[in-house]
């Protein structure tokens, strides 16, 4: 008998119930009890929805983040909150979100303010976790109450519960040593806490515990490999069976290590790590359970059940009841329920599966394995029909686009002349002063703007009224920028709700869900658009807004686009062709837009690639290939223009020391990056690598309400000028201004323009 289980369920709720409950609690509008009650209801509902499985996950629910939950379970709280009064959950939110001295929870005055824990990406997903903090003195102090309470709840429901925890080695690996000490030195202390934890679960008659060690799909040095052996060598004495779970990629050189760890079972990702499976079968000791993640937990397409069974049945014949089946990873990376969608095109909808549909697929697979295919033939046929229709649909496949892709040669990504020659022509045309000033694209998204957009979307505001309103906003932002004395203006992006969705909505080959929310961090969710087919651009997407903005000013107006790599990385994408192919198609569509803007007289065009760095694969081994096609796609999008047209790009979060050569290879004339918070420290990358083109290192931290002084910005620019020749420096904020208010933006930009003037006067006098 193949056993079914799930690694984790989306906790935010099909209607984002958890988000709203959290935010209401944080605003002081509802009680802690009310929040706890929402948590209980969501857990109950989600367990009911998983009740058909042989094991349901417990402890996967989280009020903010499962890594932070683990830190609390282990009693590893940052020093700065240890003395806090109040409820555990309040302390937990303090670490998660930070706390100002005037916070509504009443502990500001007694406990003081506290900064939020650092947040970073969970492997290569768009989920962000709170980074555990360590020092040489870190002690662990087990608090298993959260897990035990949820376990009791699940048992009261009569469910076969499988607690889920993060494994000790991954927990250490994901954390940050605050004092430079060796994290691995903490392992013995940490294992003592894990042993206690597993014992307390055993005391509750838990049979299996899922212990997540996804760090096994990354490159590990000898010390970390040893840590696995010593950790699990010690934990094997616990009275529960451990299912060690890895996901998101291939084990490769860690395969033998993973196969031989003294645990009762191993879960591997059979979607992203399929090539591991046959070699693993050879290695696996004959008493071990193998759980195969055969349903993609990262994407929203229906599983090809026929193909999966063809592959799985022979494995089942060998493993028999040692085979478990599951989604590849926790389902927190996909939306909850396709049945909530009312407006999705029925054909496209028939190709999709969200979390609940994926669990149905899983149970169908198990039935077919355990009882043969005949009893589920009808379901298998309907799955087959949907999969076949998608494979052959002319909504998906567009021969003209395929032909355009195959006709691409490298010259498409080449500018006519090298940077020095272009720069001279651009300078002659644009006549910009030294240290030119500009912004990153968006201006404050006011309540009026949001209201107009939502009225238009719902049909209550007609096209003409909407256009008039947006033009008014554009005119306002142009006026403000002229008054500020900025050199290169932007239209302000009032018409954009999101920098990816805006383009997705206008491209053929994209679909949108209504409720397809996925947790990004804490209460924040994103609704990634669905890239389902060959991409084309039926008509210009930004031209009208930008040419209107240009018509209002004699200063250069910077056209504003999102780049192909960022559009790709923030979407659900096709699984029937390589990501690189989808990216190239997006690049061709953006290229057309770039050329249309140029033709209309826009001579500065910015192509944002905010997500280029975060698309890097988990293993360094695969970076080169990714960077090649990612940079190649950007070049196709950008480089069809004349020498005189200046291409800008923008990247947030610019810790790109290790990819600086690829960034230079994009060959944008100007790149703007986020640097102000680090005091230009991020420019260290430029010490050893002389970046050949122009740079605008951000001097205004747009994440903070603080208004930087001209002196501070001059200082930052002088730091930058130590690494980059001043004649190639621009002065600009760190990122777009859409989350700020006009009354913050105006003084900050006034100071920024003043800073540029100071720089010009000191430079010309020396
Ligand atoms: N042009 C976008 C803006 O200004 C860039 C945002 C981003 O990089 N995340 O909002
Ligand atoms: Zn940015």
**How would a textbook summarize the main sheet?**
8 strands, parallel
**Overall form:** globular
Low-confidence stretches: none
Number of strands: 21
Number of helices: 29
Helicity, as a percent range: 40-55%
What binds here, in terms of ligands, is: glutamine, zinc ion
Write up this protein.
This protein is an alpha/beta fold. It is built from 29 helices and 21 strands. The strands form 6 sheets. It has an 8-stranded parallel beta sheet. Strands 17-18-19-20-21 form a 5-stranded parallel beta sheet. The chain has a two-stranded antiparallel sheet with strand order 3-4. α19 (447-458) runs antiparallel to α20. Glutamine (GLN) is lined by residues 440-442, 493, 499, 560, 608, 610, 650, 652, 735-736, 738.
Sequence-ordered SSE layout with sheet pairings:
Layout: E1 3-4, H1 17-26, H2 32-49, E2 56-58, H3 66-73, H4 79-82, H5 88-97, H6 108-111, E3 119-121, E4 128-130, E5 133-134, H7 145-156, E6 161-166, H8 168-174, E7 176-177, H9 187-203, E8 208-212, H10 222-235, E9 241-245, H11 255-260, E10 265-269, H12 274-283, E11 289-295, H13 305-319, E12 323-327, H14 346-349, H15 355-371, H16 377-392, H17 399-406, H18 419-430, H19 447-458, H20 463-484, H21 501-504, E13 508-511, E14 518-521, E15 524-526, E16 530-536, H22 543-551, E17 558-562, H23 564-569, H24 579-599, E18 604-608, H25 623-638, E19 646-651, H26 660-665, E20 670-673, H27 685-688, E21 694-697, H28 710-721, H29 742-765
Parallel strand pairs: 1-12, 2-6, 5-7, 6-8, 8-9, 9-10, 10-11, 11-12, 17-18, 18-19, 19-20, 20-21
Antiparallel strand pairs: 3-4, 13-16, 14-15
Helix pairs in contact: 1-2, 9-10, 13-15, 19-20, 24-25, 28-29
The structure holds glutamine and zinc ion (ZN).
Zinc ion is lined by residues 440, 610, 650, 652, 674, 735.
